[in-house]
Every structure is written in C-alpha cells, then in structure tokens.
Amino acid sequence: MSSKACIQYYYHSGFSIEVEKKLLIFDYWQGQDHDIPEELKIRPEKLKKYEQVIIFISHHHPDHFDPEILTWLIPEKTLYVAGFDVRLPIDGTKLSPGEEKQLLPEVRVSAFDSTDDGVSFLVKVDGWRFFHAGDLNFWHWREESSFKEIEEAENAFHKAMAPIIDLKERIDLAFFPVDARQGTMFEAGANYFIMSVKPRYLLPMHFWGRSDLMESFARQARTRETQVIPLTRPGDKLILTEEDGIYEAQLIQAPVVRRRTMDEEDPFNMTELPVDLGE
C-alpha cells in the first residue's frame, strides 16, 4: 500500500504537510514585508477542504508565531498545538519538553527541548514521522563569542539532541535551521543533526532569504542516509511517496516572481525622451 505526503514551503520556518485529507502547518509567518505572495497566503476558506487542520507553534518569537494564524479557527476542524511559552488567546494544546499528546487516532505529537525558547516537535501521522526543530540549533557565534560561550552553546545543543538521537523509529523528514547570520560554521548544527539522527530527508529553514547558501549547503551536506532538499521559494513543494518501504521525492519549484522595478512602476521615468526645458 502506498502513502503520499505533500510538503509546501511558505517563508522562513513555515511549512505545511498534507497527508490523507489532513493539513499540518508549522511556524507560519508572513515575513516582515509580507514576503509570501498573496495567492499563497493561508486563508480560512482554503482550509475548509481538509477534514482536519493542525497548527503548530514552536515558540513565541514573532518569526515563528504570526497572529494571522488565529483567524484560521474553524470549530471542530482546526487544532492548535504550541510550545509551553506561547500565550494562546484561544483553546489549544501546550506542550513542554518530554510531553506527548494523542491529537487524533492517527496523529500523535511529542515535544522535545530547544536551545532557544519553546520546543521542537515530532509528529507521527498516518505512518509518517516529521520533525520540526523550531529554534533548536547549535547557536554558536564564532566570530563574536568567547570560547567559553561557544562551549556552553555546544553542551546545551548536545543535551537537547540526546533524546532525539535515541529515538527508535527513523524520522522521515526533518525541518532544521541553517542560519547564515552565525557566520563561520553556520551549518554546524544541521550537519550534526544529519550525522547523528540520519533522517531520510532534511529541509533547511530559518535561512533569512539566503537561498544561494541553501543550494550549496544541500550539495555538501547530503549523505547516503539523508537527502538534503532546499525549498527556497514561497510555494515550492516536495512530494514524498512511500510504497513497500521504498521512498521517492519529487521537487516542484514555484515560478520565479519578479518584482517590478521603479522604472516599470513609474510611466514618467523615461529619461531617453527628448525634453525641451526652454519653453
């Protein structure tokens, strides 16, 4: 029997996963400048076709918790699952590291620690296992931090990672931060995750628009056990299929959206036309 999951990238750390008429949404954020094209933004009317919608918020940071998601509430259809530090003005499930919750007969979520605020999530749904790291990462800043600070960050990261490494079931797909703002060795956390956890697929996130670096990271970081696939344009999709233990991935890239330039927007900005200022 075959199974399919459709993953879509929105922006930053925001993704959705469609499985068996259910939609899982993680850390949706429209961006500082509303970077998601209007036609891709999630609206309540788009959610009505699903039997169940589960919205995950790893922590309270504004780039992971967009108030827009509160407008998606549809009684008996939408469920909200948040890290313990999130103040939800509506009913929802809040989890701390080490806690689990059976959301639906075929959906179970486990919360793991983070090296920043909130939690990371492991979601088991219809036989698939998805991991969203939130802000779990090796947050070193080698060009700014002292050796002691880097060592403390590394120890905290390894401590948070230990229960994830000990998981008995393999993660099918993981979303993990690859943040170029860290400078030298910015990919250290993601590389450690790949080598120690060995998910089937890893999608970089939290890269602040540096899609160029994600392409090179994917080429360098992939291993025999883990394919690294960057979804860098809002609307990019990854279709995963599994049949008899054989997994396949199909990348569907969104069309390039070219922003209009000032010259195109201003019909009077035509400097090549002859102008006589003497009259």
Tell me what you see in this structure.
- The protein has helices at about 45, 145-165, 190-195, 210-220, 260-265; strands at about 1-10, 15-20, 20-25, 50-55, 80-85, 95, 100-105, 105-110, 120-125, 130, 175, 200-205, 225-230, 235-245, 245-250.
- The protein is an alpha/beta fold and about 280 residues long.
- The strands form 2 sheets. The protein has an 8-stranded mixed sheet with strand order 6-5-4-3-2-1-14-15, with no helix packed on it. A 7-stranded mixed sheet has the order 7-8-9-10-11-12-13.
- The longest helix is centred in the middle third of the chain and has 19 residues, at about 145-165.
- It is globular.
- Residues about 260-279 have low confidence and may be disordered.
Compact summary:
This protein is an alpha/beta fold. It has 5 helices and 15 strands. Residues 260-279 have low confidence and may be disordered.
How are the SSEs placed, and which strands pair?
Blueprint: E1 2-11, E2 14-19, E3 22-26, H1 44-47, E4 52-57, E5 78-83, E6 93-95, E7 100-104, E8 107-112, E9 120-125, E10 128-132, H2 147-165, E11 173-177, H3 188-197, E12 201-205, H4 211-221, E13 227-228, E14 237-243, E15 246-252, H5 262-265
Parallel strand pairs: 3-4, 4-5, 5-6, 10-11, 11-12, 12-13
Antiparallel strand pairs: 1-2, 1-14, 2-3, 7-8, 8-9, 9-10, 14-15
Write out key terms for the chains shown.
279 residues; 5 helices; seven-stranded mixed β-sheet; eight-stranded mixed β-sheet; disordered C terminus; alpha/beta; 17% helix
